[in-house]
Amino acid sequence: MGLDKCRVCLTGAAPINSDVLKFFGILNIPVLEVYGMSESTGPQTVCYNIPDNRQCLGFKIGSCGPSMPGVETLVLHDPKRDPPGHGELCYRGRHIMMGYMGDWNKSLDAIDKDGWLHSGDVGKVDDDGMIYITGRIKELIITKGGENIAPVPVEEMIKSLLPGVSNFVMIGDKRHFCSALVTLKLKPNPDLTFTNELDTAALKISPECKTIEQAMNDKTWNSYIQKGIDKYNSEMAVSQAQKIQKFVILSTDFSVPGGELGPTLKLKRGEVAKIYGDIIEKIYSSSAE
Question: Which domains, ranges and CATH numbers included, belong to the chain?
């Protein structure tokens, strides 16, 4: 693979699927996660790997690792927003910026009077000091009933149940129930957009379906997705408000040219809501909200 001379493999900037980490792990190539912000001069936490040391607690799949030596991490819990043990991740140390040049008010919003830099990320710290990112404050879904839901963990759980699905986006802000937009795995074009042809695991769900148009109207495909959602709703959802009530299969996958993903392939949740606004409204207009 050309990685035989690589001494350390690191990943950052965007969340990485645990299946990717497991794949490289099988090849005895540990890929270590790094987490931080430009405002914290780069990393705040970093995984580390000590070969042949079974007591090493610096690497867990799904974690960004422990805080680096010499820096502090605070989990700022908001009981109105966060589940127990979760909160906004805040940093403090000599690596924190002095402020935004020429924008004192923005600087005061970012760094509080005690010197803590507020990341805007929601996370938790386990008993071994390993840090996990569970969502973004700006991405939180606040239902019409007032419950705060971090969509990313829910989306990752459901995607793990549905290998043929590429993206699963939870919808429900200011709504009475949560729904989802679903994209399937498609063959890519050279320009980073997608064809209408199903690819990889998506071809195994319903042998008669070769294109996205066929899958959208296929009973087997719809049953496959519904079964995954039902399993999440019955075994994994922590409240009634977090259950997915409806879903729609979209006619293409998300891409940078399409506007749904940013340069680092992060989901642009606000843009998705705008691009597919009509479809979202149809989901809720057909229900007694």
Answer: 9-139 (2.30.38.10), 141-285 (3.30.300.30)
